[in-house]
Write a structure and sequence with these properties.
Largest sheet: 7 strands, mixed
CATH superfamily: Gcn5-related N-acetyltransferase (GNAT)
Radius of gyration: 15 Å
Oligomer: single chain
Helix content: 25-40%
Number of strands: 7
Protein name: Ribosomal protein S18-alanine N-acetyltransferase
Order of helices and strands: EHHEEEHEHEE
Strand content: 35-45%
Organism: Populibacterium corticicola
CATH topology: Aminopeptidase
Low-confidence stretches: none
Distance between the termini: 38 Å
Pfam families: Acetyltransf_1
Family: Belongs to the acetyltransferase family. RimI subfamily.
GO molecular function: protein-N-terminal-alanine acetyltransferase activity
Strand order of the largest sheet: 1-2-3-4-5-7-6
Mean pLDDT: 87
Shape: globular
CATH architecture: 3-Layer(aba) Sandwich
Number of helices: 4
């Protein structure tokens, strides 16, 4: 897969056919502690909102999922459940595209704040979130399994 620029990438609602690629990306990004296809399927079938970033595939007319993100919202606050971008497509701004789409969705649902948790070792993601104005609220111990890494809990107050 070769994604040359952000201009090649489009966002759309996640479909059930995207599950195998998202599951493969989970393992590629998060290793053995990644969510299994069954766990992902259960998550995607729930009440949340999920979006994928796609780029043209090598076959004309085909598309390849190069990123994904999810949001749960109770009306007052929203929780980002996941954001992942294929390693070969990172540094193109796809994470920003996904994050902006989640923020837009949270606003449309009436949320006043967005929360997330991110591994303390994921400096690229932490930098992205802080550029968007997220503040660190604290550290959650033993959140990421089986590695037992710690996670920052972060919040962004949404402007109307």
């Amino acid at each position: 897969m070769t994604v040359v620029s952000r201009d090649q990438v489009t966002l759309r609602a996640m479909r059930s056919g995207d599950l195998p690629r998202v599951a493969a990306l989970e393992v590629e990004l998060f290793g053995v502690g990644a969510w299994s296809p069954a766990m992902l399927e259960g998550e995607f079938a729930g009440p949340g909102w999920y979006v994928v970033a796609t780029a043209p595939g090598t076959i004309p007319g085909a598309e390849l999922v190069v990123g994904y993100a999810g949001l749960q919202c109770d009306g007052e606050t929203a929780d980002i459940t996941t954001i992942g971008v294929a390693p070969q497509a990172q540094r193109l701004g796809i994470g920003s595209m996904l994050l902006e789409a989640l923020h837009e969705r949270a606003r449309s649902l009436g949320a006043s704040a967005v929360f997330l948790e991110v591994a303390v070792t994921n400096s690229a993601a932490i930098s992205l979130y802080e550029r968007y104005g997220y503040e660190r609220l604290g550290v959650r111990k033993r959140y990421y399994q089986p590695e037992n890494l710690d996670a920052y809990t972060m919040r962004l107050t949404l402007e109307s």
